[in-house]
Amino acid sequence: MEHLPLPKPPKSCVFRLVPNSQVHVSKANNASEVYDLEGAYWEFELELANVREDEALALDAFLAKLRGRVGKFLMHDYRRPQNSLTAAGYVNGSNQDGNLFNVRGMPVNQTYAPAGTRIQIGLGETAELKVLTEDVVVNSHGHAQLVFESPVRSIPGDSTPVYFNRPYGVFRLADNKQGLADAQVKDGLVTSWKIKGREAF
């Protein structure tokens, strides 16, 4: 599976985790009942600016190969590359589920990553993108607990890698109308082109 082949870093990139909570409001007395459902997903909207037309055409061809919302691609949050977080951890033990994992192999005796950091659990088409909700505090043995949202959709095996550097997720286009047709072009440059996607699972 390929990464979305952007010709340059985007001018803007909005990455958002969308919970699947629902609220039912009674028509009789306006009392509300909230349902915390599974199925939270990431969505993104990026904007490219001042891209050469030949480079834009190459990206448009990639989007065409996706056939709208059929194909999938890999994507990370360009605002948060987390380039300094080069170490990876590994799931420590089998049958870990939910939103709290034990990991091993981390740099010892430190707070390695703060809450709000993105992480990637697994590789390729099975990768899941998460956001830490607590700091990662590593003990003298390189062990730590990861607390994150949203809960995993599939249980990873022991030794599944957990990445902090440029963590990606699996996405598809937000609809069947993404492409160069709506971009603004002037003097051989694509001056503004917005692309939207949603996590695929």
Automatic annotation (TrEMBL):
- Its protein name is Uncharacterized protein
Q: Which organism is it from?
A: Pseudoalteromonas rubra
Lineage per the UniProt record:
Bacteria, Pseudomonadati, Pseudomonadota, Gammaproteobacteria, Alteromonadales
